Amino acid sequence: ISMPRKGFEWRSSQLTIEGFIHKDKRKNQVVHKTKPFPGGQPSVTEVNWLSVTRNYHVLECRPITGRSHQIRVQLASIGLPLYGDLKYGGPPTSDQRLYLHCYEMSFLHPVRKEEVVVNANFDQAPLWEQVPKL
Questions:
Q1: Are 10 and 38 in contact (CB under 8 A)?
Q2: Whether pLDDT at 24 is above 70
Q3: Which contacts (CB < 8 Å, 24+ apart) does range 86-93 have?
């Protein structure tokens, strides 16, 4: 769940965020840039807009690359910081939570070479109750 910065405007129900990110291990923080830079690794995230709840956008994000903090830093870089993500400019929450949830993940089993799909329901936090059924 994202809280758009003032002036942010959706131009489409889907977008792809591409760039380069590098993790500063001392600060445990990631830097995102649109052009290559020393130490930066390519990163791509596909984003679908699902709905607006109060002043928040409910997004479905699919990281194509698997970089540390990728979804968080890429959304913040375009003006859509996650609700509760103080590290990357998101607004604080009354329940001190980061509103990022992985509802489905799939991967290739390393031995059987079959796709494994794992699903997780939303917990009972009040803001999740407003998310449309996925």
A1: no
A2: yes
A3: 87/29, 89/5, 90/2, 90/3, 91/3, 93/127
Q: Rounded distance, CA 17 to CA 47, Å?
A: 8
Instruction: Name the amino acid, one letter, at 8.
Output: F
pTM above 0.90, yes or no: no
How many residues does the structure list for the chain? 134
Tell me the C-alpha distance between 24 and 19, whole Å: 16
Q: Which residues contact 71 (CB under 8 A, 6 or more apart)?
A: 45, 61, 63, 82, 100
CA distances from 106 to 2, 80, 119 (A): 24, 25, 9
Residue 20 CB: number of other CB atoms within 10 A? 18
Distance in angstroms (rounded) separating the CA atoms of residues 51 and 17: 19
pLDDT tens across 99-115, in order? Answer: 898 888 899 999 999 99
Q: Give the C-alpha separation, 31 to 23, whole Å.
A: 6
- pLDDT above 90 (res 87): yes
The pair phi, psi for residue 106, each rounded to 5°, is -135, 150
